[in-house]
Amino acid sequence: MSGIVTIVPPEPADTASPCTLVCTMDGRTGWCYGCGRTIDEIAGWSSLSFDARRAVRAQLPARMAMFGQ
Questions:
Q1: Which whole-number Å values give the CA distances from 17 to 5, 37, 38, in the listed order?
Q2: SS3 category, 39
Q3: Residue 29 burial (CB count, 10 A)
Q4: CA distance 60 to 19
Q5: What was the pLDDT predicted at 1?
Q6: Which pTM was predicted?
Q7: Nearest to 13 by CA among 54, 64, 56
């Protein structure tokens, strides 16, 4: 072992996953009741660019408001 340690900076808060571990989808909207994302947004989250993640996150407050949250 070389003894080299790689320090990885934390992910910016505005690009972190908004998952709340509820993971239940609304059949009408296709959004998760916990985080407001679609199944495609959830499945592809780790491969999205930070800009794409920010764009999705910008939509979530309005989506969650439709659930009354």
A1: 26, 10, 13
A2: helix
A3: 13
A4: 11
A5: 55
A6: 0.82
A7: 54
Q: Report long-range pairs for 21-30 (Cβ below 8 Å, ≥24 apart).
A: 26/67, 29/63, 29/66
| pLDDT tens sequence across 22-61 | 999 999 999 999 999 999 999 999 999 999 999 999 999 9
For 67, half-sphere exposure in the C-beta direction (CA atoms, 13 angstrom radius) is 19
d(CA 50, CA 47): 9
Nearest to 24 by CA among 16, 34, 9: 34
Buried-exposed string 58-67: b where 16+ CB fall within 10 A, e elsewhere: eebeebbeee
Tell which residue, 6, 19, 10, 26, has the closest CA to residue 45: 19
